[in-house]
């Protein structure tokens, strides 16, 4: 009996995660198919992907590009839509089983929530969704019986380490601590004074991983690890004080979990994002591949504590999750402004944390939220961050 292919909507198909996901689909066409492709503005690549994968529908978020995409794909009978509302609608289609949320930043929140409410399985690569609205997302997923499979390498590692573990009285693994590993980024070992003069070009040269620009800068500033800590707090229902960040420069151990008996489980592998992506797309069933294998005789593992003086963003993330409510939303919005400004050469590397701290200090926080409160908070945080930038440039 022929099994039905798993039908996938790829949100952010032209980005780093999206293109690697399509590479996996390309090699597993008997089991996986892309029925929906969504991109922000990379028109040429989106059209090229649609011509190869023949999805049922595509969405270009930037409405100014609609005509070009529509005219290119109309002869193939592919449905073409544009705008943010269209993304929220397309994830609810009956011909979608799994939604890979690989959009960057706050923009991924509403489509993810829409997909959850439609009962779709979520392969979550958009960490900002859980940073901004983790409590809401987990609550909605439970209410709709939706499985969320993390795509971040660290969270995929933790997820894999917890599979098959005995459950305690509250139906939770007997988990004592999460050890969240960090590469340390390209500036590991730099002093605060050395970091004053680093450039975007230097920050974009990650020593181990190939990622998009935003997450690469976040990795360099350790904000990525702060966001991942918040994500882990919600995904694994673990208090922040039980999530320890450990610098592991080799990026072979992707994360570890420590249990109540003191034993530790770790997940290891090459620093290749296709591994956690394929694990999620396979619904935690492993998909065979021919990627390079580890040779343990060629590796040694070392560990360090993160330097919080040189990289204060990690402390700011712990502060935000301790405050709760809308504080992580403010953190995320301010960080997005900071990263964009740094990449444009308008803000120094060390000043990013100053901008984020100022925004956390000045935006009025709410202990409870819904989508409208989050949207207003996100807007206010971006305005406060932008105002601070303007004052600094005078």
UniProtKB/TrEMBL annotation:
Membrane-spanning segments:
none
A Pfam family that this protein carries is DXPR_C
Give the residues the record marks as binding 1-deoxy-D-xylulose 5-phosphate. Answer: 127, 153-154, 183, 206, 219, 224-225, 228
Q: Which residues form the 1-deoxy-D-xylulose 5-phosphate reductoisomerase N-terminal domain?
A: 8-134
Protein name as annotated: 1-deoxy-D-xylulose 5-phosphate reductoisomerase
- What is the native source organism of this protein? Porphyromonas catoniae ATCC 51270
Q: Which residues form the signal peptide?
A: none
Domain 1-deoxy-D-xylulose 5-phosphate reductoisomerase C-terminal: start-end pairs:
148-236
Any one Gene Ontology biological process term?
isopentenyl diphosphate biosynthetic process, methylerythritol 4-phosphate pathway involved in terpenoid biosynthetic process
The top EC class is oxidoreductase
């Amino acid at each position: 009996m022929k099994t039905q292919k798993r039908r996938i909507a790829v949100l952010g198909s032209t980005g780093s995660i999206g293109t690697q996901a399509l590479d996996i689909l390309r090699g597993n066409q008997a089991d996986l198919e892309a029925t929906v492709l969504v991109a922000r503005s990379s028109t040429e690549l989106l059209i090229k992907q649609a011509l190869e994968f023949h999805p049922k529908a595509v969405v270009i978020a930037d409405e100014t590009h609609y005509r070009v995409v529509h005219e290119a794909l109309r002869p193939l009978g592919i449905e073409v839509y544009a705008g943010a509302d269209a993304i929220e609608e397309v994830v609810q289609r009956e011909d979608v089983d799994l939604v890979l949320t690989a959009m960057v930043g706050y923009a991924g929140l509403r489509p993810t929530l829409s997909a959850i409410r439609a009962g779709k399985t979520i392969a979550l690569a958009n960490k900002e969704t859980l940073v901004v609205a983790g409590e809401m997302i987990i609550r909605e997923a439970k209410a709709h019986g939706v499985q969320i499979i993390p795509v971040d390498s660290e969270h995929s590692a933790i997820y894999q380490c917890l599979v098959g573990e005995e459950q305690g009285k509250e139906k939770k693994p007997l988990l004592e601590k999460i050890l969240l590993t960090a590469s340390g980024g390209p500036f590991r070992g730099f002093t605060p004074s050395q970091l004053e003069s680093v450039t975007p070009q230097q920050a974009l040269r990650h020593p181990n991983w190939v990622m998009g620009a935003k997450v690469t800068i976040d990795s360099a500033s350790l904000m990525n690890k702060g966001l991942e800590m918040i994500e882990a707090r919600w995904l694994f229902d673990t208090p922040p004080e039980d999530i320890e960040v450990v610098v592991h420069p080799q990026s072979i151990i992707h994360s570890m979990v420590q249990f109540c008996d003191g034993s530790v489980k770790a997940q290891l592998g090459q620093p290749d994002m296709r591994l956690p992506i394929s694990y999620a797309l396979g619904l935690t069933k492993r998909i065979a591949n021919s990627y390079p294998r580890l040779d343990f005789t060629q590796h040694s593992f070392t560990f360090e504590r993160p330097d919080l003086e040189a990289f204060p963003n990690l402390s700011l993330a712990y502060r935000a999750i301790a405050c709760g409510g809308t504080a992580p939303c403010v953190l995320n919005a301010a960080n997005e402004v900071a990263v964009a400004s740094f990449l444009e050469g308008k803000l120094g590397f060390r000043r990013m944390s100053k901008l984020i701290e100022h925004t956390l200090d000045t935006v009025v926080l709410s202990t409870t939220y819904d989508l409208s409160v989050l949207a207003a908070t996100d807007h206010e945080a971006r305005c406060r961050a932008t105002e601070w930038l303007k004052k600094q440039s005078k």
